[in-house]
Design brief:
The complex is a heterodimer of chains A (257) and B (269).
Chain A (H helix, E strand, L loop, with lengths): L8 E16 L2 E13 L2 E6 L5 H8 L7 E6 L2 E2 L5 H9 L1 E4 L11 H12 L5 H14 L15 H13 L5 E5 L7 H18 L2 E6 L2 H7 L2 E6 L2 E6 L1 H5 L7 H7 L3
Parallel strand pairs in A: 3-8, 3-9, 6-7, 7-8
Antiparallel strand pairs in A: 1-2, 1-4, 4-5, 9-10
Helix pairs in contact in A: 3-5, 5-6, 6-7
Chain B lengths: L1 H7 L1 H34 L6 H40 L6 H39 L2 H7 L4 H40 L3 H9 L4 H27 L4 H34 L1
The chains are: A alpha/beta (257), B mainly alpha (269).
Chain lengths: 257, 269
């Protein structure tokens, strides 16, 4: 269950958030948050539903714009770069969606080819096939290549979603609730896959979850989002070494004592 | 006094509700206008997605082909049948082929095709893109550095703009065929005579006006369907609204465009 120690470069921050604020209507979701993600690190963001965890990674990938603050990703300020620069930056970021977001009118092969053929100019058919085979092997689902997304199980869909992001060799992975809606065994398989991706592709990742098993298995560092701000950041044991009534129910629910 | 207050109080609220609905409608028209500008900004830039355009043309054509064949034929037969008694009263049955062709070529073929396409194709585009929006498939395209607007919107709008005029031409042919069968059965007119009389009153401007209408209708149906789906919100409820909104708005705009184009074509005659 414990995570192996990763090779983290703490002098190299790949994501830097400073004073980020985001509101929807009258509801302040993020209230001036600061965050650093270091090269090679898996950072787990924990928090209750509706606290802005998914909003956070949508801000990082430029799907949403912050009301205030700065978001630096791989040396690029997301809030000020041009659309073209944002497109180029996004190729370096993999985003695994909560419901996988597979293109349901395309086969698994077409899903995987889609970002590849549009982002790699002059790529040959043989190279496309090789890349598709490689990522399918990495997620252990080579046999599904000609299947439609509707024919896959929840766990398989998650894996193919991750494979689709890996095909562009991202430097950063953003996982939105990777284990939501899966049975415990499949959850463990997905957690192991996240760690394999970190090792094999040397990625830095932000993992959004409220599953503490996932947090413990995959996180090098945990950041707890409470009331629109990161209140507790540190190793798993440090974050939960508290009597804060906003934090203890998480632990009690996930690991009944 | 109380009863007077009770009966008059709902009136301002109804007025303000209507005012807000009208304002929403014009806001939506403005957003569609902005969506059209974005379409023209992106459509000429690479990648051109030719394969997807061809696939969408096939989808649009196949989706509507059976219904358009049936409707076109029935429109031709019914219009001919209903027009006969009026012409008979004036002893002008021989004008039937001309009347049928003028009505079909100038108005019915593009309009009927557009209304069917708005129902079949527009709703389908709205629902498909709406579903992709709420299941984050469009976001997934966006974050993978691809251009979802180009791939999903431009291809579909180009496809409807190309295919609906072709379908309208086909509808005109099928409706004329229906008209001919009815005339042939009742008056015993030969095919050659029918066609000669049918095309004799039509001018080049009529063909161009009809074709222009079909092109504008095709573009409208595509852009409205894509707009509704692409901007869909609120989960599965939003998908239904997108499909419904695509049909209602497209039909409304098609009728307005019909009036405008008839007016403009009149200036060239």
């Amino acid at each position: 269950m414990e995570k192996k120690k990763a090779n983290i470069d703490r002098n190299n921050g790949v994501i830097k958030l400073r004073g980020v604020e985001k509101s929807f209507a009258d509801y302040d979701v993020l209230r001036g948050i600061d965050l650093d993600l270091y090269q090679g690190e898996n950072l787990v963001v924990l928090g209750r539903s509706g606290t802005g965890k998914s909003v956070l990674i949508k801000l990082i990938s430029g799907l949403l714009s912050p009301d205030a603050g700065t978001i630096e990703v791989l040396g690029n300020e997301v809030t000020t770069i041009t659309e073209r620069e944002l497109e180029e930056l996004r190729i370096r970021i993999g985003f695994s969606f909560q419901n996988s977001a597979l293109y349901d009118s395309m086969t698994v092969r077409k899903n995987l080819e889609f970002p590849l053929v549009r982002n790699r100019k002059n790529i040959t058919r043989a190279e496309i096939d090789k890349n598709v085979q490689e990522v399918l092997e990495a997620v252990g689902l080579s046999q599904t290549i000609n299947q439609m997304p509707a024919e896959l199980s929840g766990g398989q869909r998650k894996r193919i979603g991750i494979a689709r992001t890996l095909i562009l060799n991202p430097e950063i992975m953003l996982y939105d609730e990777p284990t939501a809606g899966l049975d415990p065994i499949t959850c463990i398989e997905i957690n192991e896959l996240i760690n394999e991706v970190q090792e094999r592709y040397n990625t830095s990742s932000i993992i959004i979850t409220h599953d503490l098993t996932c947090a413990k298995m995959t996180g090098d560092r945990i950041a707890m989002l409470l009331d629109g701000q990161f209140q507790r950041v540190g190793a798993f044991e440090e974050v939960f070494a508290t009597t804060d009534p906003r934090v203890t129910p998480f632990y009690d629910y996930n690991f009944i004592q | 006094m109380d009863s007077v207050n009770n009966t008059t109080s709902p009136a301002p609220s109804r007025i303000s509700k209507t005012r807000s609905k009208v304002a929403d409608f014009f806001l939506m028209l403005y957003r569609i206008y902005a969506f059209i500008l974005r379409f023209f900004k992106e459509v000429f830039l690479p990648p051109y997605e030719f394969r997807e355009i061809v696939r969408q043309c096939y989808e649009v054509g196949v989706r509507s082909f059976t219904l358009i064949s049936l409707t076109g034929f029935i429109v031709g037969v019914i219009f001919t049948k209903q027009s006969r008694p009026s012409l008979t009263n004036f002893g002008a049955e021989s004008w039937l082929p001309s009347l049928v062709s003028i009505a079909i070529m100038k108005a019915l073929a593009p309009l009927v095709t557009a209304l069917i396409a708005a129902g079949k194709v527009g709703s389908s585009i709205g629902a498909e893109l709406g579903s992709m929006r709420v299941t984050e498939q469009i976001d997934a395209m966006e974050v993978s550095g691809t251009k979802p607007f180009k791939f999903l919107v431009c291809t579909r709008v180009i496809a409807t703009t190309i295919t609906i005029p072709l379908l309208a031409t086909y509808t005109a042919f099928i409706a004329l065929l229906g008209g001919y069968l009815n005339v042939s059965q009742n008056e015993g007119t030969s095919y050659a005579t029918f066609m000669e009389q049918a095309f004799e009153p039509l001018t080049f401007v009529d063909f161009w006006a009809s074709l222009s209408k079909a092109i504008v209708f095709g573009f409208t149906i595509g852009i409205v369907g894509c707009y509704q789906g692409y901007n869909s919100t609120k989960g599965t409820e939003g998908v239904g609204k997108a499909a419904n909104g695509a049909v209602v708005t497209a039909m409304f705009l098609v009728f307005i465009e019909e009036v405008l184009i008839v007016q403009i074509a009149g200036w060239f005659r």
